[in-house]
Amino acid sequence: MLAILLTDSAGQFFSSGHTNNWAVLVCTSRFWFNYRHVANTLSVYRSVKRLGIPDSHIVLMLADDMACNHRNPKPATVFSHKNMELNVYGDDVEVDYRGYEVTVENFLRVLTGRLPPSTPRSKRLLSDDRSNILIYLTGHGGNGFLKFQDSEEISNVELADAFEQMWQKRRYNELLFIIDTCQGASMYERFYSPNLMALASSQVGEDSLSHQPDLAIGVHLMDRYTFYLLEFLEDIHPASKTNMNDLFKVCPKSQCVSTPGHRTDLFLRDPGSVLITDFFGSVRKIEITMETINLTDPIKQMEENSGNDVQTENNTYVDQLPVSEIIHQKPKQRDWHPPDGFILGLWTLILLVFFKTYGVKHLKHVF
Amino acid sequence: MAVTEVERRRGKLAALSIAAMVILVGVPLWWKTTQTYRAWLPVAQINELAKLQLQLSADVEVVFARGTATPEQQKKVPVTQTQDEDHAVDEDTTLRYRHETRYRTATVMEEDALKQPTAAEADLSLHRLSESPCGSLVIYVIPESSSLLPENVNVYIGQRRTALLRIGAQMKVGKTLKQLLAHLEPRVKQILQVMSFSHNDITAALSDRVRFSPDNKESIADSMRAFKSSPGYEITFSLLNPDPKSHRLHWDIEGAVQTYIQPLLTKLSPVANFSLDSQILYYAMLGVNPRYDSSRSAYILNADSLAHVINPVEARLGSNAASSNPVLNFLLYVPDAHHSPLYIHDHKKREVQTNAFHSPRWGGIMVYNVNGFYQTGTNFPVDVNINMAKVMGVFLAQLRLLLGVQSTAPPSSFQVAPCGSSGLADWELDRLMWSRSVENVATATTTITSLAQLLDQIGNIVINDNIAQQVSSAVTSLQLAVAELEVGNLGFALQYSKEAILASEKAFFDPSLLHLLYFPDDQKFAIYIPLFLPMCVPILLSLLKIVSEVRQRRREKQAKKD
């Protein structure tokens, strides 16, 4: 008995073309005085979870642990409003990459999917060609780069190339890129793949400023752009119809001091028709099941085979700590490099030969 | 003075020999030691694959039963016709559909089989006589007077690879074989659209290569609903019991899976591997408050609120951490005693027969009401045995949809047999295999070509031997898959296409291919100048000096001559 599927559900598919949502939220700075960057990321995480994206679809990367930092006077909390109004840490935060695991290499591996096979599911971005992805970066940045962990940087060219590789492998349907750093607009200048929309907290040459310090905790709690972004998102609920044009108006110059920027030329749809929940939430498409299959066979009884023959398997255990291997290990073969002083030695040789040939006083013949 | 002359000559020779050493030995040495290791890739073959020319062949046999062809027409059979249909999808992709149709008359045993009272029994006995290979079809043409099909039905599509087609009386059809074949051709084509590959399916399967908007609204919904081709899938059955105090639920999931689901998965084993698990979740609420409808004295869930049911539940479902295969979740929700019975209404406020809904590329949810199994006032908790046949019937239908077994409605004069105990007709499996093979080939070609382009663009990436080997094996498998599709060996084509996609994904996602270092030009200069400039300046200057001296001497010689 085949019935015709409901065709008006097809109308929903046209509005956005995506079936699932992912979010990659990255905080790139460490040290206690960068508390606000962790608070930024956690508040976006909280909004995204509240609007429906499950933890299995969020990759959260925090470069340092503020909640359990020994300088935190209120342990296990990260506040985003002064007077400790809102604790964004909560009790169900799932951090996928923490501490020193947050590196440029790992970030690019997550985006392009080139992770070693032993990486667990929660650390992977398993998006497909019908996924809408939200990428949020925060930290210290400059003109064309973003600083990771105070020791390395990612350039805007590398980021654009990573997005192009994602596009080539159809790892996203549409991508929203939000960055809250100084001179953030430089990071989206080099994008060239289709279906990318980008927002930044400040233009090239401007600094993004922090919002308010809390005197009890002793550091600035949030950055201005993300603070007003969080306020904007608190008004959004899973069924709301607010669109991207409202998101572009968040934090005007009067509140933010810097000028937020956005880029929509690579995006195929009109931003006015893009819902906030297309990226920040996870509204599922639903179809009513109209068919059923008539099953008439009775259920087979499972044979009882546990009692009859006791299956003996020879279990072998892997050596937990192969001590003997470690002790007798030979040094690893590395590629041969010329010895370090080689170039210096080469100079010295050449200079010596010249001086010998011409004599020091005849140096003017050379020059 | 002579001494200085000798010294000067020695000096010039030294300068020249050092310059020669630097250029002949130093520069190649520097070039070689700063080169990245790049194994050889079959770039020419990859570029060939970028232009994809797919040919899909299917064999069709049309058998004339007694009464359909006149004796003089029967004398001319068996005859074979080949039909080609060309489509150019875009400038890089062309498709050709080839149907080889063989016309023959029925054997005595087939005539006996066609004398069965109903079409279903005829189908069964025809199947016992011979089994058609994968990808082919047999159409039996029966006369108008046959009683196998009811009045308004002209075509019966069986569970395996046969169809029964009823044609009009011989007078209307025509005298010559040519007229008969011409009359049959559009009808046969109609059957092929339903039972074999159709242009819509194939172009939907090519969506990885070609991004375009199809004309048909249903097909875009179909392509978004079914999971993309993957070597394996995980299926999870979950029983949600929000009220263990009232209901003690028993479901024989192992037996049900073994009896109802496993036959389908076994039949689908050439397409993908499946792993099954099940779980029971207690105190898992729906997250949406149903409305009470006093006219039906039941609780109602509207179609609009269904979309918000899945997210709160998904957080608790869990999945297998070890594999990255897509997960299909099937949830059975038994409403708590205070909110029973719970019915789902569609957009038009009508009650849904199956009481279930599904979400594209995610899974399905069914609401199972148990308030009918006990009277009010009994002691809670009540033991309830869930009727697994009914539940699995719905889940099986949802599984078919999510895996891509298209159920586009056939034309009105067609009657399609129900799919049988394995849940999948043979011709549906063939259709799935066609679209999966094409999808795999399309995805693998785009992966390989974009990988080759990427490695070409970025000169700094090291290409190891294992990557080159994977790429070569992917290219070989792709060529074999395309060749097998041309010939019509569907089983082999699918297998080669799966190997191709595995190898190409492995090569593309190899962790060693991460291009991390981007050197802007000014940084390159900043590194090399302090190393090479102090060394090169004396050499260059002494060479210039030698050249200027030689020129001066030549001028003097010229002046002396004059």
From TrEMBL, chain A:
Pathway: Glycolipid biosynthesis; glycosylphosphatidylinositol-anchor biosynthesis. InterPro entries: GPI_transamidase, Peptidase_C13. One of its GO terms (cellular component) is GPI-anchor transamidase complex. Pfam families: Peptidase_C13 (PF01650). One of its GO terms (biological process) is proteolysis. GO terms for molecular function: GPI-anchor transamidase activity. Coiled coil: none annotated. Gene3D superfamilies: 3.40.50.1460. Keywords: GPI-anchor biosynthesis, Membrane, Signal, Transmembrane, Transmembrane helix. The active site is at 140, 182 (nucleophile). The keyword Membrane applies. Heteropentamer. Part of the GPI-anchor transamidase complex, consisting of PIGK, PIGT, PIGS, PIGU and GAA1. Interacts with GPAA1. Interacts with PIGT; this interaction, via a disulfide link, stabilizes the expression of GAA1 and PIGK and links them to PIGS. Belongs to the peptidase C13 family. This is GPI-anchor transamidase.
